Amino acid sequence: MSLSVSEKEPQSVSVGRIVSVTGAKAIVMLEGGHVGDDNRLREPKQRPEMGTLFAIDTTNTAVLAIVSALSVPVPAQREGERELWIAELGLVGELWKGQNGRATSFNRGVSVYPALGDRVRIASRQELELAFCGEKKNSVRVGCIRQDPSISAMVHVDDLLGKHFAILGTTGTGKSCTTALILRSILQKNPAAHMVLLDPHNEYATAFGDWGEVVSQRNMQLPYWLLNFEELIEVLIGNAPDRKAEIEILQELIPMAKGRYSSGRANTQQQALRRGTDVKYTVDTPVPYRMSDVIAMIDERMGKLENKKDLSPYRNVKSRLEAISADPRYAFMFGSLTVYDGMAQILGRIFRVPVNSKPITILELTGLPTEIVNVVVSVLCRMTFDFALWSEGQTPVTLVCEEAHRYVPANSSLGFEPCKRAIAKIAKEGRKYGASLCIITQRPAEIDPTILSQCNTVFALRMSNDRDQEIVKSAIADTGSGLLEFLSALGQREAIAFGDGVSLPVRIRFDELPRHCMPRSSTARFTEKWQESMGDENYLEAIVDRWRNSSSVAAMENVAMFAEAMNLQSAPPPADPPPSGRGNGFGAQTAPPGPGAGLRRATDQATSRPPPVPQPAPNDSFRSIRERLQQR
C-alpha cells in the first residue's frame, strides 16, 4: 500500500546528518546554522530539543536516538554568518520495517548501526506511539510523553514489578502522588493484586479508598512469637553488648516454651502422628508460645540458684518481660490475653488472601513506639519474602517501602541490621519467587546503593542536590542517562523514567489524580491558616486528649478492632453474664487490659478460662504455607 503525502511528509524532513558514531552514542551536525535563524518559528514537533527522539533510517530499520546535549562549538561573531550546531545522541532502540517500509515492531538496543552521512529526522507520531506504547495488554497508562502529549506514557507491569522499581525526588516534588497514581493504575487493571504499602506518615489511606485494607496501631495484631530471635532481642533488650547473659537465657528458654505450647496442643492422635512428639523448635521458628511459660521457667531456675550474683540476669529478663507486657504501646504485640495460632489469618489479612475487593494493605506506622518501628518493618519484610517463597510463586506480592532511607541507610552504623537484610533479600532474590520491591525516598544518597542498584526501573522526579543526582546517575546503566543532566529543571508532575518498566528513557508528565484520590501529603497553607486566631482552651484540651489516647485507647481497642477487621467470630455468651469488655480478637471474652494486664495473663488456657471457640480452618494453601514456615 502506497503512503499518502501527509504520511510521507514527517519522515522526509531532515534535521541533520551523522558525523560520528561511537558505541551507543552518535553526533549529528544539525542543518541551519545561520545566526539570526529563528528556531522558534519551526513547528514544535520538528524542533530539536533536549530529550527529543530522533529516527535514523537504515536499510531494514529505523534507529531511535535521544538528544542528550545540544551545543555550538564555535559561535558566529556576526549576523548571517554560518556556525556549527551539534546534537549529541544516545542510541536506545530500533524499529524494524515491514515490506511497505513502515515500522512494525520495536526492540531495545541497536543491531544495525547508522553510518556516517545518514540523514537524521524527528521521529513520526506513529513511530513514537509504537516505541513508547508497544504492547498495551499488560501495560498501564501513567501520563503522557513530553515530546508529544497526545501519546500515552505506558508502564509494563510485569517488568516494572518483576525487576523492582524506585521513585526518587526531593520533598514536595510529588513522590506520594506519583506513588498513588502508579499503584492505582496497576490496581485498576489488576483487581486481584497483592500489595503491601509501608506508610510512615499515615497519608495513603485516602488515596486508595475502598481498595485498601488499612492496618494501624489501633487494629494491628503482630504477635511476639512471629518475631525471629534478633527482632525479639531488639524489642526486649535492645542493642546492649554487655547483656550477653540475658540473651543466652532467652535463647535457651524460648524453644522450650514453644515445645511446651506445642505439646499441649497436640492432644489428638492425628496431630501427634502428623507433627511427631519429638519436634525440636529453634528460637526463630514462627510458632506460638506463652510469655507466662518463659516467666515461670525463669522463676523455676531462680529458685535453684544459690549464688545471688547469678540471679541478676534472670531478674532483668523477668522485669523486662513484665514491663513490656503491661506497656499499652506494645499491646499490638504483647497484649493478647490468650495465645492462639492465628498465623494463617494474619498472613491472609496482610497479603490479601483472599483479596475481598481490597488488593492493597496500607500499614500505618505512625503511633507505633519509635524504638521498634524498624523491628515491625523487619518482620513485615521478612514475612513478605517467606510468604512468596513458601507459596512457591503462586501469589506474587509487591512491597512498597516509603521513606526507604530510614530502613536501609547507606551508613552501616545506622538502622536495624535484620531489617536491612530482609529488604536486601527481596531486592536480590525476590524476583525468583514473586516478591517485588518498590523503593521511595527523597535522599538517594543516604540509601544503601546495593538496594538502589537492584531497582531496574527508576522514576526520577526533580532533584537539586548534587550528591543525590550523582547516585541516581551511577544507578542508571541506560544509554539515555544524558537526560538526567536536567533533573533539577523538571517541572511539577514531571519525571525522567528509565529501565525495563518503560520502553525507552523518557520525560513523562504524570496524569493528575482526582482530588478524592490524593494522599494526605499536601504542604500546609501557612498564609491561609495564619489570618485569624485558632482555637481556645477546649481546642487545646482536645489535642491533649488525642495525644494521650493515641497509646492508651489503642491498647484497649486494638485487639477488638483486629477481630472485627478479620471477621473472626466471638465466643457465644455463657450462661452467666460475662464481665464487661471487648473480645481479645481470637474468640474469648476478656476484660479491658488495664494497668498490669500483661501480668495477669493466663498461664494456661485449659485451666484459667474456657478454651477459645474453634476458628474456621484456614484454606489448604495457607495451612501448607504455615506448616512449611514452621518446619524450617
Provide a compact summary of the structure.
The chain has 20 helices and 18 strands. It has 632 residues and is α/β, with parallel strands linked by helices.
Describe this structure in words.
With 632 residues, this protein is an alpha/beta fold. The chain is 35% helix and 17% strand. The chain contains 20 helices and 18 strands. The chain has helices at 5-12, 125-132, 157-162, 175-189, 205-208, 229-236, 244-265, 269-275, 291-304, 311-326, 331-334, 343-351, 373-390, 417-433, 449-453, 466-475, 526-529, 537-565, 605-608, 620-630, and strands spanning 14-22, 25-30, 53-57, 61-71, 86-97, 103-108, 119-122, 139-145, 152-156, 165-168, 195-199, 212-215, 360-364, 397-401, 435-441, 457-460, 494-499, 506-510. The protein has an 11-stranded mixed β-sheet with strand order 9-8-18-17-16-10-15-14-11-13-12. It has a 6-stranded antiparallel barrel with strand order 1-2-5-4-3-7. The longest helix has 29 residues, at 537-565. The protein starts with a helix and ends with a helix.
Shape, principal axes of CA atoms: elongated
- C-alpha Rg (nearest Å): 30 Å
Largest sheet: 11 strands, mixed
Secondary-structure class? alpha/beta
Query: How many DSSP H or I helices?
Result: 20
DSSP E strands, number: 18
Strand order of the largest sheet: 9-8-18-17-16-10-15-14-11-13-12
Round the mean pLDDT to the nearest integer and report it.
Answer: 79
Approximately what portion of the residues adopt beta-strand conformation?
Answer: 15-25%
